[in-house]
Design a protein that fits this description.
With 174 residues, the chain is α+β, with helices and mostly antiparallel strands. The chain has one helix and five strands, in the order αβββββ. A five-stranded antiparallel beta sheet has the order 1-2-3-4-5. The chain is rod-shaped.
Length: 174
């Protein structure tokens, strides 16, 4: 009988160890599942944060490009409307100054009948770039300013953003 009792005790210990080991396996499985869920959530959060950074950068670049286009248009309007004699009524326009720049900006002139086209480009703050075309229809007095602004001074470079501003008005023809 003592042998039977010892044998039963050993069997109980073995059964308890098997149950204990099964519970340990469940704990490991639960830890792996929870860790996986936390990892997936962290990766999703990092992905959203990265997209927000890219969006913020793109928005900032777009703002710089818009401000450049606006500066170019303002420069053309200033030299056409607020100076004593418009710089854009002659076939040999004088150089102009824009955006507080110390360097004079040459103006290219072309003519097609009664249409005079003036074109100039300049760099703003050593980074942004404006490409401006002012077209005067001498027959009806209409003037159109098209200003392209870029967030970099290399318009065709990677990451360059372009914004366009167009203004049409009746302005001086002489």
């Amino acid at each position: 009988m003592p042998f039977q009792h010892i044998h039963n005790m050993n069997m109980k210990n073995i059964n308890n160890k098997i149950k204990y080991n099964r519970q340990n396996g469940m704990a490991i499985l639960l830890a792996v599942v929870v860790s996986s869920v936390v990892l997936i959530m962290a990766m999703s959060l990092a992905n959203v944060a990265m997209k927000e950074l890219i969006l913020t950068s793109t928005t900032s670049n777009s703002d710089y490009a818009f401000y450049s286009a606006d500066t170019g248009a303002d420069c053309a309007l200033y030299w056409d409307l607020t100076t004593t004699t418009s710089n854009f009524v002659t076939s040999s326009p004088a150089n102009i100054y824009c955006a507080g720049g110390a360097n004079s900006i040459p103006i290219e002139f072309t003519n097609s009948g009664s249409i005079n086209v003036y074109h100039f480009t300049f760099v703003i703050n050593t980074k942004e770039f404006a490409d401006v075309t002012l077209t005067k229809d001498m027959s009806n007095g209409n003037t159109t300013v098209v200003s392209l602004g870029y967030n970099t001074n290399l318009p065709n470079s990677s990451g360059s953003v372009e914004r366009r501003e167009e203004i049409t008005y009746t302005g001086p023809t002489s």
